[in-house]
Amino acid sequence: MECNSQQWKGGKHMIPSAFDYKKAGSVEEALQLLTASDDVKLLAGGHSLLPAMKLNLNNPGQLVDISGLDELSYIKEEDGCICIGACTTHQDIVNSSIISAKLPVMAEVGSTIGDIQVRNKGTIGGSLAHADPAADWPAVLLVCNAEIVMISAAESRTVAAADFFTGLYATALKEDELIIEIRIPIPAPDSRAAYVKFMQPASRFAIVGCAVMTSGNGSFEDVKVAFTGVASTAFRDQGVESALNGKPRSNDSIAEAAEKAAEGVDVLGDHFASENYRKNMAKVYAKRALEAVM
Ligand SMILES: Cc1cc2nc3c(=O)[nH]c(=O)nc-3n(C[C@H](O)[C@H](O)[C@H](O)COP(=O)(O)OP(=O)(O)OC[C@H]3O[C@@H](n4cnc5c(N)ncnc54)[C@H](O)[C@@H]3O)c2cc1C
After folding, report:
1. Are residue 181 and residue 199 in the same domain, yes or no?
2. Burial group, residue 35, by CB count within 10 angstroms (0-12, 13-18, 19+)
3. Domain limits at 107?
4. What is the reported pTM?
């Protein structure tokens, strides 16, 4: 087959522009490299950044590889929270005994991400920084009231997940900052959580993903519902939450509340699902997620 050389030279066809590569030996070194130039990108699992570079959607002059930093790869319990290092892979989260004992919904979510290659290389920090509107972690972190810890050469700061995702592929992360940790309060023993998704069959990204968390016995208390895949960024659905809070745990309460899903939200439409279809699926998946915690 004849090959158009224009297509291979930095065109649209899978060859990224030239870049320098440095492997950071520590977080400190990564931060130094990050501030040394305004044309640097951190490389973690590479499962979002490299495809974007191959499509010439992102052309950094230098990659700083943080994937080998053990200091960013851990899951531990501290001060009533589960703390997850930014370079912890999706599969490490799925396999963690701490996660399965204290936050099993995180393992549920992780196991639905991509395939085993993606889960073995992709990291939770990379997923949050990339902020794909169809990514799975944002929805569950929203219902868990998680916090994202970021560091730059100058300071460290912590932002609630609710304030971290600011738009389509947009976050509160600054150019010179690195996510170091995700902190998730350990839910009360009587709380229940679930995540269900209508997945794109090839990539397994969420066309609609719904995470829920609630407590109480006879009634729904402290209900939190969040969607991913539905809009330009993951969001808590206050319409569903307020329709259900304090209501009896019954199929009728769930059906009524699920009808409110994505009300007033600017729903995405694309070649996988039209806006109307996605909105209907949000209702269906809200119902399924809530039934799972009834
Ligand atoms: C075939 C395929 C299927 C997939 N399916 C799913 C799916 O079903 N659900 C889902 O949620 N995701 C899915 N993904 C995305 C996958 O989860 C990626 O691993 C993830 O989005 C990015 O993580 P990464 O470690 O690979 O980040 P990278 O690709 O290395 O980086 C992504 C971005 O984050 C930045 N970054 C990385 N780490 C940090 C950090 N610590 N601090 C600050 N910035 C950082 C990078 O500079 C870059 O801008 C899929 C990907 C592929 C290729």
Report:
1. no
2. middle
3. 71-185
4. 0.95
